[in-house]
Amino acid sequence: MKVSPTDATLGAVVTGIDLASLDGAAWRGVEDAFHEHAVLIFPDQHLSAEAQIAFGARFGRVEQLVPGMEIVPISNQRKDGSLLEDDEHQMQVLIGNEGWHTDSSYMPISAKASILSAHVLPSSGGETEWADMRSAFAALDDAMRTRIEGFAAYHSLFHSQAKIGHRAEVGAGYGFYEGEQPLRPLVKNHPVTGRPALYIGRHAYGIPGLSEQASEQLLADLVNFACQPPRVLQHRWSVGDVVIWDNRCVLHRARPYDHRQARVMQHTRIQGDPATECALES
Ligand code: OGA
Ligand code: MN
User: Fold this and answer.
1) Which of 55, 56, 2 is nearest to 29 (CA)?
2) What CATH number has the domain bearing residue 134?
3) Mutate which of 65, 72, 97, 127 for ligand 1 pocket (most atoms within 8 A of beta carbon)
């Protein structure tokens, strides 16, 4: 197994490994690399759905984003091969993915990790980017670090989708969570490495103690500052690639592409640890 760090502050490309048949030593190598680099790119794996779920299950409890399904398409193509229209609910969710976010921060237990694999790709665009919230936090000036250290924000998929003009209804599917909106600290200490990271992104809003406008401004300023080189990694996908990322310390986003071309990815999400990824009592 070869782990080659990228030029960014996060991410490594891992080769010489078959994710469908990991022995104990290889698994420990993967887990260590995951904690160190936060994003691991495995080219040319061509995992079956079952193998992707099994790889995910090594990290923890696999979420069912659709009841009964531990792997879900992130796709603008219907089963019959036709493509979604931009104004359809599912397409609006995909367009939402083009804003910097972390997965399941709008649920009572946020995600530990997500796995994405590439199956059908557009001829250009449709890359994925990740941004390192550990090095972003470390790069803040002292005044900002001190200012935000006691802050928390609510997280809601209704809120983030409304900002792009998508008005989703309660019961609209995974993430459109109707319970009490989770409140989460702006600075998250990683449960394994202890490293502090900014915990922000498009689902965050409403910092208690700030006006709505001051909260929006601060959250936008933080994302704009954080998601800059050398903290951003872009991956141009090839069919068969598999990527896993640590939602506890990175943001990610899809890049735009021509929606008249198909883009089919398969997603598996690993739930956080209730001890460390539960929302605060509000
Ligand atoms: C996701 C996601 C981005 C992409 O799967 O959670 O945000 O590039 N995907 O499809
Ligand atoms: Mn996502």
Assistant:
1) 2
2) 3.60.130.10
3) 97
What's the domain range around 98? 2-273
Ligand 2 geometric centre to CA of 188 (Å)? 18
Q: Per residue in 80-100, pLDDT tens?
A: 999 999 999 999 999 999 999
Q: Which atom from ligand 1 is nearest to the alpha carbon of 127? A: 8
* Ligand 1, atom nearest to 255 Cα: 8
For residue 202 the two structure tokens come to: 């498009």
CB of 128 sitting under 6 A from ligand 1:
yes
Average pLDDT over residues 147-156: 96
Average pLDDT for residues 7-21, to the nearest whole number? 98
Radius of gyration of the chain (CA): 18
Dump pLDDT digits (tens) for 175-205. Answer: 999 899 999 999 999 999 999 999 999 999 9
Bridge-based pairing of strands 12-15 and 39-42 is parallel
Number of domains in the chain: 1
